[in-house]
Amino acid sequence: MPDTKILLEERDIPTHWYNVVADMPNKPAPPLGPDGQPVGPDKLLAIFPMSLLEQEMSGERWIPIPEPVREAYRMWRPSPLFRAHRLERMLGTPAKIYYKHEGVSPAGSHKPNTAIPQAYYNKEAGIKRIATETGAGQWGSSMALAGKMFGLDVRVYMVKVSYDQKPFRRSMMHTWGAEVYASPTDMTQAGRNVLAQDPNSPGSLGVAISEAVEEAASRPDTNYALGSVLNHVCLHQTIIGQEAKKQFEKVGDYPDMVFAACGGGSNFAGAAFPFFADKAAGEKRAQNIRLVAVEPTSCPTLTKGVFTYDYGDASGYTPLMLMYTLGHDFMPPGIHAGGLRYHGDSTLVSHLLHDGLIEAIAVPQLATFEAGVQFAQAEGIIAAPESCHAIRACIDEALRCKATGEPKTLFFNLSGHGHFDMASYDKYFAGELEDYVYPEEAIHAALEHLPKFG
Ligand SMILES: *Cc1c(COP(=O)(O)O)cnc(C)c1O
């Protein structure tokens, strides 16, 4: 029987991040200010260090990873690649299924891959504090961990509904020494505006981002950090796909299809972009590879959104970015994959989709939990509800292979474990979860409010 667990040595942790911009046929459009003019780095220096802004705008293919960052990555990297023998047998598929387990990080997801370098570069720039937001708590806990590793204070604006429903992620952040507030708060103008309209507002990621950005912009010792969407975040995540390629090499295999759950796009970018690099470099084995971003039908940014300029937050504090969007005041329904409820998407992922170089599909909530339970019962690992989206898409393809007899090689990124999401699994078992397809009318309504500029 071929290997189940494909491991690397610490020295195999990548030495560089891969910047997909170098290989994009159409380069990403620049962020714009409210006047319709490109926003230069000077405007963003109030909330980001120059080193990260350089990465944000870089066209260099390979960007070196600082040694202290690689040192911190050693806490959990390289992460294992698994061959899912048991799942293959359970499905009776001729397909080979592999998955990379990013849930082995201390915070339990792929997000520390970028929280660590963001903390490092801010520390190097003399910053003392980070203000950030979190939805379900995956990003906030990753930033709390990274802040502690590099000696930064961290304040997290946590979307109120999650603050109330996910007390243990809050406890994790406290354990790593971060301050956590339920957003909207009365500490920022953005928060006070929302509370004035609705004192019981459950909050949203867009509002929490506005609060954190406002705080960072108003204090010289404080910067802002974002856990997805931005180019430098996608860049940092490419260690996932690079490690996976080495692991595939070890077993003499190569994927035909790559699947990853897509919220703001960095998880997908991390798993898929290094394979895109092979294709762009003209490698024969990569010419027909299919890279598939998987999103929920309740927040169908890539599959039903519009490719246009929009704000990254609810209040319009961020620059305008060209991306697929459902409108910045889109209020996502309370589905249980909190990490996939963002109205927009990475500019890089959006451009590649628009150019037909990657694919996107949407899957409904109940089917994702069904896949997660099947995966847990075959492979033992309880996946985060976000990751269950990739599992669903991969299982569906494995079943198609069963019908056609095609022995494809399938790969998905297991972006996180679900140990803090058991209440969601319980709801699924109790039959309390529903499928939700975001109605076309609501999408049209949100798109009415797209910014007008220039
Ligand atoms: C945040 C998160 C995602 C989505 O990641 P993006 O980079 O925003 O697309 C997927 N899985 C898990 C476990 C997450 O925490």
Automatic annotation (TrEMBL):
Its cofactor is pyridoxal 5'-phosphate. Pathway: Amino-acid biosynthesis; L-tryptophan biosynthesis; L-tryptophan from chorismate: step 5/5. The keyword Amino-acid biosynthesis applies. Pfam families: PALP (PF00291). Residues 77-416 form the Tryptophan synthase beta chain-like PALP domain. The modification N6-(pyridoxal phosphate)lysine is found at K111. The keyword Amino-acid biosynthesis applies. The beta subunit is responsible for the synthesis of L-tryptophan from indole and L-serine. Tetramer of two alpha and two beta chains. Belongs to the TrpB family. This is Tryptophan synthase beta chain. It comes from Parasulfuritortus cantonensis.
